[in-house]
Design brief:
Low-confidence stretches: 1-12
Number of helices: 8
Largest sheet: none
Oligomer: single chain
Distance between the termini: 125 Å
Number of strands: 0
Radius of gyration: 44 Å
Structural class: mainly alpha
Shape: elongated
């Protein structure tokens, strides 16, 4: 089912059709009602896109029946909107209005702005086609209210995302400073330790040289003393 949706978005309609038919066969075999309804809905969309409105309506009716049997409101909201679209294209404005209003009711029940927006657009076109300009204006107004609402939500989400990214960058920067500071402290300690070792090494070297010079001096004094003693005798 998901594979079919992806393939459809990639405009690979033949592959999408094969995938959804396979998914429908599996769903029927395991008696997965929602899966069956979803597959019928996808098939209806496939035929709508292909301008075969008769087949689109057949599969829409099948999907509608399955969703009704399991009281799947999300599915009913979507499929009644699709049926309204089909009837609008067929210029059957009575049924377009009936299913459009039904979809709008489901959308309000679910609180789905995007479904309300899309259904309002269908109803606007339906009322406009029948010269019911009062209701057409109401649907157009509702469409723009939902559209603006969705755009505000998108902006809020974008702002939130930017805030999260900013906080992440700040944390990364602070962590970098901390790491740099820790490395700097470690380097300073290392340098200090090396300096201390060099100082001790220099002191030890000086001590050894001092001892050697002292020994040389002692030897020189002893020899001078012995030589002086020999001359005195």
């Amino acid at each position: 089912f998901n594979l079919s949706t992806i393939q459809s978005k990639l405009n690979k309609d033949d592959l999408a059709l094969k995938s959804v038919l396979l998914s429908l066969s599996i769903s029927k075999e395991i008696d997965h009602k929602k899966g069956i309804g979803d597959c019928y809905r996808l098939l209806a969309t496939h035929y709508m896109d292909g301008k075969d409105l008769e087949m689109a309506l057949i599969y829409s009716d099948s999907s509608h029946a399955v969703y009704t049997s399991i009281d799947f409101i999300e599915g009913l909201c979507s499929i009644t909107k699709n049926k309204a679209k089909i009837y609008l294209r067929l210029k059957d404005y009575k049924n377009a209005k009936t299913f459009g209003v039904l979809s709008l009711q489901y959308g309000n029940q679910l609180g789905y702005p995007i479904e309300i927006k899309n259904t309002a657009q269908v109803l606007y076109k339906t009322y406009e086609a029948t010269k019911d300009y009062k209701n057409a204006f109401k649907m157009l107004e509702l469409y723009h209210v939902m559209k603006d609402s969705l755009e505000r939500v998108d902006k809020i989400n974008e702002t939130y995302k930017l805030q999260i990214d900013f906080e992440y960058d700040q944390k990364t920067f602070k962590d970098s400073l901390k790491n740099a500071s820790e490395k700097e402290v470690s380097q300073l300690k290392f340098n200090e330790k090396n300096a201390q070792l060099e100082k001790e090494q220099t002191r030890n070297t000086a001590l050894i040289i001092g001892v050697i010079l002292l020994l040389v001096s002692v030897i020189f004094i002893v020899r001078a003393y012995n030589k002086k003693k020999e001359l005195a005798m």
